Amino acid sequence: MNKKVKWGIIIGIGTVLIGGGIYSQLPKENEELVAADKVMSGQRGGKKILNVNAKVMKPQLLRDEIQISGSLLPDEEVDLSFETSGKIVEINFEEGGFVKKGQLLAKVNDRPLQAQLQRLVSQLKLAEDRVFRQNALLERDAVSKEAYEQVKTDLAILNADIELVKANILQTELRAPFDGVIGLRQVSAGSYASPTTIVAKLTKIFPLKVEFSVPERYANDVKIGAGLDFTLEGKLNTFHAKVYARESQINPTTHTLTIRALFPNTDGMVLPGRYATIKLNKDEVKDAIAVPSEAIIPEMGKDKVFLYKSGKAEPVEIITGIRSEAEVQVLQGLNIGDTIITSGTLQLRTGMPITLDAVH
Question: Can you list the residues of the chain whose pLDDT is less than 50?
Fold first, then answer.
C-alpha cells in the first residue's frame, strides 16, 4: 500500500469519527416526552383535546374566615392565702381535687381568739340586764338619763367587740372563693403561715376564656356574640366559643385588638394554658355561588373563569366577593347550573376542545 492511499484511509476514518461526535452532541427530540404529550393532550382530527376536571355551580354556605392564634385562660384563678398569721392546724383538701365555693380548705390556730370570744359572750348577759334595769328605773325617774345612756353604750361596745373577735376568727379560715380545681399544696400542717404564704392555686376551668388578638383592619368585623371555632394540638375535635368582650382600644405597639370568647368546657377535659388555633367567621353567605380559587385566572386587572360548553372551553368575566381558604364567592358572571373548569386553566384557550375526567 503506497503512502498516499494510507494517508487517505486515515483521513477518512478521522472524518467519520469527528462527524459522529458532533452529531451525538446535537439536541434531539425526546421521544418519551412527545409520547406523553400526545397521551395527555389526545389527538382527534389533528386538534389537541385537553382532559380537565369541572364543577357544577350550586348554592352553598360560604364563610369568610380568618385564622389566628390564641390561648386558653381560666374563667377565674387565684393564689390562696390566709388573711392573718398563725400555725396551720388543718388542711382539708386533696391536691388536684374539685372544691365548692365556701368550702373550708385550711385553718390556722384560733384558740386565743376563741377564748377571747367566750369571755366577751359571758359578759353579754350581765350587760343586757344592766340596760334592762336602768331603763326600768329611768321610767320611774329613779336614775338620770345619762346613767341609762352609759349602760346602753357599754352594751353596744361589748357587741362590737364580739363581732370584731368573730371577724378575726373568720380570718383564720381559708375558704374557696368560687367553685374550681385546686392545685398542688405548697404548705403542710404545723407550718407557720402569713398573708404572703401561698397555700395553693384555685382555678375555675368551666367555662374557659379564649383570648386572641386581631389586626386593626379586622377590629370592626368581630362583634360581641360572634361565634368562632378553634382546634387544639393533639385533638381531632373542633371546639366552639362565643365572643363576649373586646378591649377598649387598639394596642398602639402591635396595632391589634384583644378579644375574649367563652368556651363552656362543661366536661372539664380542656385545661387552661393551651395554645389554640382559631378560625373566626368575619362574614357568612348562605346561598353563595363559589368557585375554587385555582379556577380563577387574573388577566389585565380582571378575573375570569372557563365554562364547559358543548365540549369546548369558553371564558367568562366574573366579579368576586368574599373568600375562604379554598373558595371565592362570585357576585356576577356565573349562574346556578353552570359548569366551570377547575384544572388545566393555564392551558385553556377560547374554543379549545376539552374532555371532562371528573365533575363535582
Answer: 28-45
